[in-house]
Amino acid sequence: MDTPPPIWGLPYHLVTLLIPFLILSVQVMVMYATLPYPLFLIMIGLMVAYILPPAGKESVIPIGIALGIPWWYMALSIAMIDIETCLFMVLNFELAYKIPYLGNLLMKITDKTRIFFTAHTWLVGLNFAAVVLMVMVPVLGSGGVRGSIAGKLLGMKNYLVFLAVLTGTLIGCFGIALASDAILNNLCANGMLPPDISALVCNGG
């Protein structure tokens, strides 16, 4: 395989490795500038928890909202993690499997994704929609990494994999966030939470 040409005078693979981390760095700086420091620390902790299994968007998003982070901010922040990890995978797919430790982890995820498709053959023919559904619905999979692997296993082009993950994570994250915010507001408004928990999560409505 020919080595891709340099980008901006830098080796191609160096640029593709850096792009997701640069976007993540910008995201963290924006969060630092726009969130009160205690909420910033909570947000960082929830993002790390989301990246490391077994936490998923169905758990970290409601927790963040309950702790005072606006529902839309929480949804967008977690969706960005899926977007960044998807970018890393589609831009560095073969290279990622050669990275120590990460490569072994990706192989395990790949094997589990193959088994998942074997058990859910109806998804295989859906291609784009299958990846959207896997990323959108937590019980069918989660995140940009597994969504990217699923897209590759289905033979999709990189830009379609990215668009499918983008679509799935935005629908999933904002859907979970809206539902969580509505449920929390209802519980607070009707005094259905124990006093100690209500004092923690219901301040400010």
Overview of this structure, please?
By secondary structure, the chain is mostly helical. The protein has one domain. Helix content is 75%, strand content 0%. The chain contains eleven helices and no strands. The protein has helices at 12-34, 37-51, 57-66, 71-91, 93-96, 102-119, 121-124, 128-136, 143-153, 158-189, 195-201. The longest helix is centred in the C-terminal third of the chain and has 32 residues, at 158-189. It is globular. The mean pLDDT is 87.
Structural class: mainly alpha
Distance between the termini: 58 Å
Identify the overall geometry.
globular
Tally the helices: what do you get? Answer: 11
Share in β-strands: under 5%
Largest sheet: none
Low-confidence stretches: none
Main features:
mainly alpha, 11 helices, 205 residues, globular
Question: Briefly, what is this?
Answer:
This protein is mainly alpha-helical and 205 residues long.
What's the layout of helices and strands?
Blueprint: H1 12-34, H2 37-51, H3 57-66, H4 71-91, H5 93-96, H6 102-119, H7 121-124, H8 128-136, H9 143-153, H10 158-189, H11 195-201
Helix pairs in contact: 1-2, 1-4, 2-3, 2-4, 3-4, 3-10, 4-9, 4-10, 6-9, 8-9, 8-10, 9-10
